[in-house]
Amino acid sequence: MIRRRAGVGDTSNITGQPLFNEILKQRRLELMFEGHSSYDCFRNGLPMVRTYASGSSGAMTVQATDPKVLMRISADEIIGNPNLTQNEQ
Fold first, then answer.
1. Spatial distance between the Cα atoms of 21 and 47, rounded to a whole number of angstroms
2. Distances (CA, A) of 69 to 9, 19, 48, 89
3. Chief localization class (predicted)?
4. Using the 8-state DSSP alphabet, how is residue 52 labeled?
5. Which of 5, 24, 33, 59 has the largest CB neighbor count within 10 A?
């Protein structure tokens, strides 16, 4: 109803990959400038694509499998569960 009032296309009949793409797009728009987009990309196995240069880097594409994406597991978690091993960087 809100989308219709705003003049935005109806999404009630979208399923599968198009629905997934629309959800990611709407999340990116809703949370713009809050720093969530890279987590959304990596969590879903997608590359983070930056087509612009910033003050500290140029345009880039970072794959979800890039070792730099892995975060360290806290020591407390590893101590609490001896089956865990630290992520390799």
1. 14
2. 35, 26, 10, 8
3. membrane
4. S
5. 24
What is the average pLDDT across 53-70? 86
Q: What is the pTM of this model?
A: 0.60
Q: Is the dihedral of CA 52, 54, 59, 62 positive or negative?
A: negative
Q: Using CA atoms, how far apart are residues 22 and 5, in angstroms rounded to an integer? A: 18
- Percent pLDDT > 70 in the chain is 99
- Domain range list for the chain: 2-63
pLDDT at residue 89 above 70?
Answer: no
For residues 54-75, average pLDDT: 86
Q: Would you say residue 12 has pLDDT above 80?
A: no
Nearest in space to 70 (alpha carbons), one of 36, 35, 39, 37: 39
Q: What angle do CA 67, 61, 46 make, to 5 degrees?
A: 70
Closest CA to 88 of 67, 62, 65, 63: 67
